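dumping this here before i forget
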Amino acid sequence: MKTLKYIILLTATLSCLKVSAQRPRSAVLQRTKQKNTDTLVVDSSTQKDLIDIALKLINKNTAPDKRAKSGKVNISIIPYAGYSLSTGLIADISSGISFYTAADHHQNLSVIANDLGYDSKIQKFFRTRSEIWGADNNYKFVTDLRFEIYPTDTYGLGTFTSLSTDNDITYNYLRVYETVLKKITDDYYVGGGYNLDYHYDITAVGNANGTVSDFMKYGQTERSTSSGINITLLYDSRQNPINPLKGTYANLIFRQNLNFLGSNADWEQVAFDFRKYIRLSPQSNNVLAFWGIAAFTGGNAPYLDLPATGSDMYNNSGRGYAIGRYRGKNELYFETEYRFGITRNGLLGAVLFANGESFSGLQSGVFEGLAPAAGTGIRIKVNKHSDSNICIDYGVGVGGSHGLFVNLGEVF
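structure:
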């Protein structure tokens, strides 16, 4: 509980750094139906967040409507020291930046997420990921840049692996992903881009139980490069990807890695990411959310580039398990979550979630069993104008796996 207390106090203080260029228009965001979207703009004038609490503590005479207007840019910062299943003890600074590229806010919300951290597993990382919309939602620019020094654990390929096949592995990692999408018609987009995954200084000590690791059987190397192009089809009717109330997201990506672009091998992958959000009542922000992932890999893809637990863009899949707990050439994943409010002013909320994942094995190449997990968590509103929450979840999986997961913005 001390960790949670420090998170709240630090966030409340630093979130006051929010950029707030005030608009002359009405302070209340209207609950009007947006053209070509099934997501409503949320009235935030009666909501409370950690910034409101911090302002009230600083100045008890602060007027209730002091922050009624939404700024051009909303910034949320979370510095925290704590523990999670994937990192152990960690010191981290996460920030979220959200903005509209049009003055009337009648478009999708652009977001930039940054993460800088160091933990007791000697993991060091910097990540910046963004989804930026052009005027009138005519274009979408998706960027994923990261550098990591990442000692971690891998357990082999497939869903039938166990903790006894723990294989300590260390590597440096550079990722450069950039995709540009063009609107074809309402909420439908097509585009393409470039993807680079570069792992180097890879070392592995072998399985803890003395058996030969799947990493060695698969083809252990000291470095690997996957460099290729992607073709992307997208349907996105959400207006706010940070915390969708309604809408659908469906993203189909074909990636082809090529020798002449610097890849170690020609290999390809098809990945499909589907999300659906159902607002249960117009009088509340309670939401039933669904998330599905299917990924299929062909050719000789490097071991560390194979689909794995938490290998999605924001490393959020598979709560209940550490990142990389399961891995395979092919992946199927499904999650459902119920999100509901606790306080009427929106400051506190909670979730219940359950998920399951399955990966193909090394020898069989077919899906092996199912690894389920479930859990619950609390939500603390850090910025009511962007609807950003601090998400603190506790998940439990099979085989004794359980732990804490902290995120800025909803998990999906």
